[in-house]
Amino acid sequence: MPPPLPRRRGWGESAEPTPPPPLPEQAPEHRTPVDPWAGVDTGGWDLPSAELPPTPPTLDYPVPPTTRQWSGPPAPPVGTHPVSPPPAHQPPPAHQPLTAYPAPHARPTPPARPAAPARPTAARPAAPVRPAPPARVPKQRRGRRSATPPPGWEAPKGYAPPPVRRRRRWPWLLLLSLACCCGCPAYYGLPISSQYPASAALPERVADLSLRQDDGSAETAKQLENEVRQEYWLAEDTFAGVYTTADGKRVTVFGGTGFRLTPEADADEEITRLGERYALETPETVQTGVRGRHERCAVGRPADGDVVVCTSVDHGSIATGVFTRLSVSDSATLLDTLRTQIVQPKQS
Question: Residue 241: inside a domain, yes or no?
C-alpha cells in the first residue's frame, strides 16, 4: 500500500515544521526507572564453541654469538674533524700556596675559564649564483636617431638640451611622385613631340648630288611613290626621287611622313620587305645618335650590280635609300644628310 501524500501547506502557513509541544519537566525521583535488559534472554552466558586443531610447535630463534666490545674512542661523525678533549686540570705544586688572598684595597680577579670546544657543524653546499638578466634595449631603425634620450641620462645642471627636430618625409615623397608622374611621360614624349608632325620635299641639290628630271627617272620615282602609298596607307606625305653625282654614282631615295609608334620594328619590316627585290644579306644596325630614330643597312646583290640599301625610321617619318658604288658606312652617312634636307619637322 503506498504511503499517504504529504499535506499541502495552507495560505500563510510557514514552511518550517511545527515542533511538538515540550513535555512537562519532572524531578528525577518521580521518573519511572527503565530496565535496559528488559525483554532480553539472560538465562545462560555459556556459548558452544567449535573445537580448533592444536597449533604446531614453534621453533626457537638461534642465539646470536657474543661479540667483544671495542674499548677505543668513538669515531667522529662523517664530514667533521675530530676534536681533541680539553686538557685535565692539574693541581698546583706542593710548595706553592693553594689560595692567594688579595690586598684589602684590590678586587679579586676571577680565574679564567677554559674555552669551550667548538661544535662540529656540517658544511652546507653553496647555492648556485644565477646571473642577472641583461637589460633590454629598445631596437632602433638603421640610419635614424631616437627622439628620446637613453634611459638614465640626465642633462647637466643649468643646461637644457635642444629639442630634436623631426625630419619630414613628405617633400621627398612629393618630389618622387612628381618625377614619376611628369618625368616618365616627358622622357618618352619628348622624341615624339620633336619628330612628329613632319613634312617632306625633295630639294634640287644635296651636297654633290643633283635631282634628275628625265622621263626614266621621273617614271621610277612615281612607281616608288605609289609603292610607299600602298604599303603605308596612313602616310600623310610621300616622296621619291633619283639623285646622281658627276662621277656617275646613283642614289634613289623614297619614303613618307606620318606618326609611328614603334619605329624600330618598322625599320626591321622595311628591310625585310626589300630583301627579296635587292637580294639583301644580313642587315646591320647603325647608331644614329638621335633618341627615337633607328637605322638599318644591308648589302644587296641584284642582277644589275651590287648596291647598299639603308632605311631610317623615327616617330614622324621613314626614309629609304639605295646607293651604288658606296660602302655601308658612307651610305648610312649620306642617308642622314638626305633625310635632314628632305624631312622637316613642323613647329607646333
Answer: yes
